[in-house]
Amino acid sequence: MNNSNVYVAKLGKAVGLQGHLRLFIDSDFPEQFKKGAVFTTNRNLQLKVLEYNSSRELVKFENYEDVDTAKKLTNQELYSTIEQTKENCKLGKNEFFWFDLISCEVFENDLKLGKVKEIQRYPLNDYLEITTYIELVNKGYPKVFLIPHIFDKFVLNIDIENKRINVINSFDILENS
């Protein structure tokens, strides 16, 4: 998939005879699976949602309205574009899209600690995976470390426009990694 696509879900097995598929959502925004929404699969198929049942976690797509055609979609991954994601998913205060956080530079006071490489999801919190700034690596610090994505305790503010994240208590994490 190209970089402008965002992984949102995986399709499971067909359920019933009318083309419904189990939907395993890997997104914080289930509302994006509304009727008429279009997704691309990892096999470059365009799928348009006919029905979505959030309580049963089932989805049905246009032109896949019986069990035999729906079975062909089993185990495929669904992707949305960044533009669709921004349009269909509304963020609250101190909420950011992961794709906006990746490649942001991380600073504690004026010390550049590194750049966000990836977001890691663990049961209690999400973590920013940081590729340590080369000058710090040359001083013996690890090449990669994790910062808990917790506002006020570790993350002070995020400026997506300038690709900058200001943190606190994170140099200590780097030193002890």
UniProtKB/TrEMBL annotation:
Any one cellular-component term (Gene Ontology): ribosome
Signal peptide residue numbers: none
Gene3D superfamilies on file: PRC-barrel domain, RimM
Keyword set, alphabetical order: Chaperone, Cytoplasm, Ribosome biogenesis, rRNA processing
Domain Ribosome maturation factor RimM PRC barrel intervals: 98-168
Pfam family membership, one: RimM
Locations listed in the record: Cytoplasm
Molecular functions per Gene Ontology: ribosome binding
GO biological process per UniProt: ribosomal small subunit biogenesis; rRNA processing
Record domain RimM N-terminal: where: 8-82
Domain of life: Bacteria
InterPro entries: PRC_barrel-like_sf, PRC_RimM, RimM, RimM_N, RimM_N_sf, Transl_B-barrel_sf
Subunit structure: Binds ribosomal protein uS19.
Family: Belongs to the RimM family.
Domain observations: The PRC barrel domain binds ribosomal protein uS19.
Role played: An accessory protein needed during the final step in the assembly of 30S ribosomal subunit, possibly for assembly of the head region. Essential for efficient processing of 16S rRNA. May be needed both before and after RbfA during the maturation of 16S rRNA. It has affinity for free ribosomal 30S subunits but not for 70S ribosomes.
Protein name: Ribosome maturation factor RimM
Organism whose genome encodes this protein: Arcobacter ellisii
UniProt gene name: rimM
